[in-house]
Backbone:
């Protein structure tokens, strides 16, 4: 076929690739990552309650996706320690027990006190500026979820400032379980008519002072005390799980109470 004449407007249209009429559908991996991000946030902040079943067909309908990216997201959340599969491959949100809180806390004390020690040895003014900016945002956090996220980000900064790559990798393995515990603690403080923002900010200012002092021992000890204090809060009024009464029966006993009991037994002996 011979085209006798072509106007400049038509030439412009047909000489260039046509733009798609709608946004390209994201790759499956991107979709799985976005589903993981949304589910992780909802679990950590308590919007999806511990013990809640996470059925693939239901989630697929909710996100408008096939079951493949849903399955990938659930596997990623299992690696984060936020969900668990039973022997029939059914998934539910993990219910943290008093023992879980204690294990996560002990891991944090070991890793973060070491991180604080290394960070204090080469602390610079720029580190102080970053932490102070984070604390300022904590003071004005609009929600408890935002406060918890900023809290964890501050601790992530300290771990990063340590410069210890293997320590950073080990800490990343418990990062989301840590935030889940912390978000619960902040909600508990508010329920008990305490002010979680003030408690958090004051504690973090003391921690910053220790880090900026350049004294590795002081920084390490202050970090350990800071973390153990959050455990005291978490176990002060721990929700007893009906599904796991044996592991939770001592949940309301704080570490301070346990120490007092030990001291009493020693006197009797």
Residues:
């Amino acid at each position: 076929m011979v085209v006798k004449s072509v106007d400049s407007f038509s030439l412009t249209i047909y000489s260039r690739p046509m733009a798609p009429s709608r946004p390209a559908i994201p790759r499956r991996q991107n979709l799985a990552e976005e589903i993981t991000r949304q589910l992780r946030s909802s679990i950590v902040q308590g919007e999806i309650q511990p013990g809640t079943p996470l059925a693939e067909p239901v989630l697929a309908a909710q996100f408008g996706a096939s079951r493949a990216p849903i399955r990938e997201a659930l596997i990623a959340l299992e690696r984060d320690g936020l969900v668990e599969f039973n022997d029939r491959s059914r998934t539910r949100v993990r219910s943290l027990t008093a023992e879980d809180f204690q294990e996560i806390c002990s891991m944090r004390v070991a890793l973060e006190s070491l991180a604080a020690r290394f960070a204090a040895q080469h602390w610079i003014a720029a580190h102080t500026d970053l932490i102070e900016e984070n604390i300022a945002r904590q003071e004005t956090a609009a929600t408890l979820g935002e406060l918890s996220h900023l809290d964890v980000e501050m601790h992530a900064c300290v771990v990063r400032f340590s410069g210890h790559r293997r320590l950073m990798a080990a800490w990343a393995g418990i990062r989301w379980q840590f935030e889940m515990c912390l978000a619960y603690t902040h909600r508990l403080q508010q329920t008990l008519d305490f002010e979680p923002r003030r408690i958090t900010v004051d504690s973090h200012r003391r921690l910053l002072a220790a880090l900026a002092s350049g004294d590795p021992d002081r920084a390490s000890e202050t970090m350990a005390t800071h973390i153990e204090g959050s455990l005291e809060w978490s176990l002060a009024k721990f929700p007893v799980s009906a599904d796991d009464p044996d592991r939770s029966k001592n949940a309301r006993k704080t570490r301070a109470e346990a120490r007092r009991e030990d001291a009493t037994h020693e006197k009797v002996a």
